[in-house]
Amino acid sequence: MKKRNQINLMATGGLLILFVLYTISLIYIDVKPIGPKDSAVAFAAINGSVQRLFNVNMLLYNITDWLGLVAILVALGFAVLGFVQLIKRKSLLRVDRSILVLGGFYLLVIAAYLFFEYNIVNYRPVLINSILEASYPSSTTMLVMCIMPTAMMQFHRLIQNKTVRLVVNIVCGVFAVFMIVGRMLSGVHWFTDILGGILLSSTLIMLYYSVNVYIEFKQIQQPGDFEESD
Hints:
single chain; 7 helices
C-alpha cells in the first residue's frame, strides 16, 4: 500500500509537470494572431486547421453549455450529502472522509478555473455575445472531466447494487465523453484548449484519487481515528 501511495504521488506530480510545460508551450510555440480581433493563439497551424475543419456550431455549444448544469447538480448532490451527514453526526470530523476530500477537490477546481480566468493564456476562436472570452483551458471540459469521474468513484462506494452501480457509472462515462466531444465539435474552443482541460482535469483527478488511497491506508493503520459512522 505504501508503494502504491508513492506511485500515485509520482503520477500526480508527473501530470502536473506535464500540464505546466504544456501551458508554457502555449505561450511561445507558433503563436499567431488568427483569432477574432487579431487575438493570438499558439500552435496556430494545428489550431487553425482543426477550427476550419469543424467550424462553429452554436446549437451544439448551447446544448453542451446547458448540460454543464447536470455536472453542477451532481456536485451539489454530494454537497447536500455532506451537509446531511454533518447535521446528523453533529461534527465535521465525523463526515465521511471521502466526502470531505471531495469538497476540498471541488474548491481546488474552482480555484483553477478562477486562476485561468484572470491569467488568460488565449481567447476563444469566436466571439460570444460580441465579447472575446478566455478559452484556456476549456472550463466545460474541466468541469465535466473533474466532476463525473470523481462522482463515479463515489458511486462505487455508495451504491451497493452492482447492476445499478454499473448502469449509473456507464451513464456518467457516456455523458462525460459526449460533453468533451460536443465541446470540441462546437468550435467555441481551440483544439489545444480542450487538450489543456483534459490534462488539467487528469492531474486534479489523480490528486483526488491519491489522497483517497492515502486515507484508506491510514484508516487500515489507525481505524479508530478514521472511523465513519452514521
